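FAQ: What does the model actually see?

It sees only this:
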Amino acid sequence: MSLADHPTKKDVAGIIDHTLLKPEATHDQVTALVAEAVEMGTYSVCVSPSQLPLDHPDTLKIAAVCGFPSGAHAARIKAEEARITVMNGADEIDMVINLAFPLTGRYDLTEAEIRQVREAIPHAVLKVIIESAVLTDDQIVEVCRAAERAGADFVKTSTGFHPAGGASVHAVELMRETVGDRLGVKASGGIRDADTAVAMVRAGANRLGVSSSRAILAGLPD
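And it is asked to produce this:
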């Protein structure tokens, strides 16, 4: 039976990046986030690079963002931010692409900036945030292909901060169809209840970025 059939609390917790990326988040709040993640059994916490290093058990992965939230940073800045963040204890990096590139058909530049970050963190998991709500279907497909060519491990729908919106079932389905089982697909942005989380999993997401983890898990069976 796959996770998408009848997911339980434990199943879904095991694919959650328990997230706190508000710019005003304090160290005490991030410390509490780690404690919550351990209590709930989530896969990781996802935080801003400035919050690292973090005290955490070995069973909990640490993810952090780079080029966040706009993606409009120079590629070399993203690469250096990712390198320093991994040096400070991150296991995974969620990078935001420069949206101007796909919107003007420059998928070569998208691929190049992802590759630059990839080369800076060869041993960390790299997730590529594409802001799917901003892109057309064709652009989503081409960005996912660029991410795969550049060596990414995941493609991710959204930062959760863009006014265009967050994850959609359609975008997740399209991303999964494009990358097959070769890359992971992370759904994030606007996932606040169990029904939405399960819908994303059934659409093909194998990681969820959420801040409402407790509410989501409360709506699932044991």
